[in-house]
Amino acid sequence: MKQTIFFPVLLSLTILLSSCAEGPNKAGMGAAGGAIGGALIGQTIGHNTEATLIGAAVGTMLGYMVGNEMDKYDREQLNHVYERGVSGQTNAWRNPDNGNQYQVTPQPGYSNPSTNQPCRQAEIRAIIDGKQQTTYTTACRDSNGHWQLQN
Q1: Taking a C-beta distance cutoff of 8 angstroms, is the pair 39, 59 a contact?
Q2: What is the tally of structural domains in the chain?
């Protein structure tokens, strides 16, 4: 049973990571991180192969979107929202270089029960190339005090 669960996930991750081998690729790296996080969450919740694969697929999509579209300026703005944003209050910005627009609404912080890291969830609504996209993210503060997206 364990081989049935891990083989498809391992194959998916191998394909995703190999797509990142050509150099710094924010979208590929985001997709790979999202796939790993999604697979772990799916397995934890569903305890079966289907849940793991669904989690990996959803995580891949969200990770790709965030990694592909957010440049350094946007990540700095998002970090500021996680650090200082008032829970339930929407923070918005427009990227001066590419015109992408973001509205981020953070939720109250909490302590991750397995790592004791401070974490926050947020809804991100973005308009990228004229198309509106919405995703929900979680970020936890790492040992250096930076917010790291978890999925």
Answers
A1: yes
A2: 2
The per-residue pLDDT string of the chain (151 residues; one tens digit each, 9 = 90 and over) reads: 444 444 444 444 444 443 443 334 455 555 555 666 666 666 666 666 666 666 666 676 666 665 555 678 888 899 999 999 999 999 999 998 889 999 999 999 999 998 899 999 999 999 988 899 998 999 999 888 888 888 5
Comparing CA positions, the residue from 138, 63, 133 lying closest to residue 101 is: 133
| Listed residue (139, 135, 115) closest to 125, CA to CA | 135
Torsion sign over Cα 82, 74, 135, 18: negative
How close are the terminal C-alpha atoms of the chain, in Å? 26
CA 67, CA 62: separation in Å to the nearest integer?
8
Q: Are residues 90 and 143 in the same domain?
A: yes
Beta strands in 33-142 (DSSP E): 91-94, 101-106, 110-111, 118-128, 131-141
Domain termination site, one of 23, 43, 69 = 69
pTM more than 0.70: no
